[in-house]
Amino acid sequence: MVVAKQVAQSQLVKISLLISILVSLPKTIYIYNMISSGDMDFSIERIMDFLVRLLFFFAFSWLILQLNANWAYITSKFARLPHTVLLLLANIVVLISGLALLEYLHPILVGTPLSKQEKGFLFFICAIVLIILFFIARILRMQIIQHDNMIENERLKQENLQNELAALKNQIDPHFLFNSLNTLTSLVRENERASQFVKKLSFMYRYILQSSDKDLVTVKDELKFLDSYTHLISTRYRDRFIIDVDIEAKYLTAEIPPLALQLLVENAVKHNEISETNPLKVSIYAKENSIFVENQIRPRTTLAEGTKNGLLNLKKRYFLISRQEITVRRENSTFSVELPLNATS
C-alpha cells in the first residue's frame, strides 16, 4: 500500500465548518427572526432540527473532503477497478448512506420524521455540496502536488549545482603537470634546484588533493599554494616571468574558492607572450575587500596548450560557491580580474 502526502486535517475541518454554516444559513436566519419577533410557535424541536442538520452537513463535508483529498490517494495493489470508477462509487455510497443515516436518526433526535419534500430537498443540497467539495478537494490535492514538485525541483537544482561545481573543480589542466615534469628532466643534474622543484611540485598536488572537497580556502593558504606554483613557472621562464604579491595581513583570513589565484596566473601565462624583451609581470593586490590580479596584454602569436575555458569555469565556480560575480576588465592594455572576498569574522 502506498500512502501519498495527506492534506492537513485542520484545513478539512475549517472548510467543512464553513460549508455547514453556509448551508444552514437560511435556517439560522429563520430561527433568529422567530426569536426576535417573539413567536411563541418556536420550540425545542426546531433547535434540535437545526443542530442535527448543522452536524450532518459538517460530518458529510468532512467525509467527502477526506475521501477525495486523502483517501483517494491511498492506493492498494489489490484494487481491481479503475481509480476514477472507485472514487465515483465511493462518493455515491457516502451520499446515499449519509442521507439514510440522517433519515433514521432525525426522528430519534428531533422527534419528527423527515417529510418527502424535505428528503428531496436535502438530496439536492447534498448533491450540490458534494460536487463543490469534490473540486475543492482536487484543488487541495493539486496544491500539495505543486508544493512537492517545487521541493523536488529545488532539490534537483541544488544537486545539479553541486555536480556542476564538482565537475568545474575537477577541470585542472593536465598539461601543467607534463610541462613541469619536462622542466624537472632538465634539472636532474642540478640536485639542489631539482630537489626544491620537486618539493614545490609535491606541495602543489598535495594541496590540490586536500582542497578538492572544500568550497572555500583562506587567502593565506591560497597564497602558499600560489608561491609553489609561481616557483615552478619561474624555474621554467627564469627572469622572463615576474610576480608581485602585495596583500595586507587583514585580508589573509578572508576566503576564496581554491585554485582561483593560480588559475588567473596560469591564464596570464597561457595567453601572453613571455620573452627576454617582453617579460610577463603579474600583479596581485587587495583593496576594498577584493583581490585584483593584473597583467599587461601581450597576446601570444601561437595558441598555448590547454583549455580555453579556464576563466569561464572560474566565473561559474565562483558564483556557485559565493553567489558573487567576478569582474573582468580590459583597459589601457591591462587585463584585470577582481575577486570579491568572503570575509571571515
From TrEMBL:
This is Histidine kinase. Residues 144-171 form a coiled coil. Residues 164-241 form the Signal transduction histidine kinase internal region domain. It comes from the Bacteria. InterPro entries: Bact_2-comp_sensor_kinase, Sig_transdc_His_kin_internal. One of its GO terms (molecular function) is phosphorelay sensor kinase activity. Keywords: Coiled coil, Kinase, Membrane, Transferase, Transmembrane, Transmembrane helix. GO terms for cellular component: membrane. It holds the Pfam family His_kinase. The chain crosses the membrane at residues 12-32, 52-73, 85-109, 121-140.
